[in-house]
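Can anyone check this?
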Amino acid sequence: MKNRSQFVCQQCGATYAKWVGQCANCRAWNSLVEQIVESEKERKAAIEKGRASGKKLDFVKIATITPSDAKARLLTEFKDLNVVLGGGILMGSVCLLAGQPGIGKSTLLMQICAEVAKKHNVLYVSGEESAGQVKLRAVRLGAESDKLSFAASTSANDIAKTIETGEFDLVIVDSIQTLAMDEISSAPGTVSQVTNCGNLIIRAAKATDTAVVIVGHVTKDGTLAGPKVLEHLVDVVLNFEGDRYGGFKTVRAVKNRFGSTNEVAIFEMAASGLREVANPSEALLAERTNTDGSIILATLEGNRPILVEIQALCTKSNYGYPKRTASGFDLNRLNLLIAVLERRTKLRLSEYDVFVNVVGGMKLNDSAADLAVCMAIASAVAGRKLGDEYVVFGEVGLGGEIRSAFRADQRVAEAKKLGFKHAIGPSTIHDKFVIPAKDIRTTLIKYVK
């Protein structure tokens, strides 16, 4: 009997009897891949076989279990990255590292290998590069070690078997989208291949207490490619973000079973590889000139306070529809703040093109950046500037009120450390250093001169 096939969407998992250009469920284009469907008889036979082969679980009292944190951790050369990981790479854990092409994932992993291979056996498995390519990177980054091994393979079966030998303490798999299982007929990178290859490698890692780091590709909008179930399977999910052509790069944990997801490691690319930025605030403000449209924001990257420059430029619009552009700041949030400024102050921005930039390639997800953005826009329109001694933070409500900011004490401490005299912030903060701001209109009239 000929096997029947169906078409499965690689984005959401919806199934179709025939190929269509767009998935009706998630609206993704060209995401359907053909897969073989098991017959009802084969499916029932597999279920019965699994039921018959089952056995009673071996269980232990939870009071007798040794906590996972008591296990050894593999430390990298990056102090902040160890903090992001919860104290280092835990033995037996599986970490998924995702980032844009060219951002520096392979460089970061090779530097991790160089440090870990000083004391432990490490295997670097690549399904994308040859041995010669990896060798050149290892030489450049000083990762040549007798304890660091390399293998080129796209077989998940072979990789899992190698992990099961227990010869290695850390295994790097670059990348999950290039792997395939012999038992599955679909192409590498499909939902079934990624899910089953991930399961196979995770089981091998847990059985031998081997730490595994898996590299994952991302889609055009920056989300992890493949099924969401892969993120549920692993222990840690790291996002490597930033501009691949320059600026700072950040590594943050969006999932971490062994630590906080509020920590962040900040890097910059140098000739010798990635290096941590000890004082990002000082580096970001080093080239700043105080002009109209320039405001210093006290923000947070994870739990770390950072001072960053917000720049705004407003020019007369030559067309009937004004342009709004934001780099490092959410465009929808910018449109909302412009609407608040027009409604709650006397600024008329409908005839201006508004451009907002976060210096240093930083990407802000902090609601307390609202006040700094509003003041930068008002400063640019009026042609006036804020004094050098001020930093700004605070969320702006639709009524024009200034709302409280998360971890205000850390923001204030960072501003004091870098020599600023005052902070303009929410009135709920009881500190002489902070000048209270109750609403956006009063604040602009008083301080943008």
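Reply from J.R.: I decoded it. The chain has three domains: 4-53, 73-278, 282-447.
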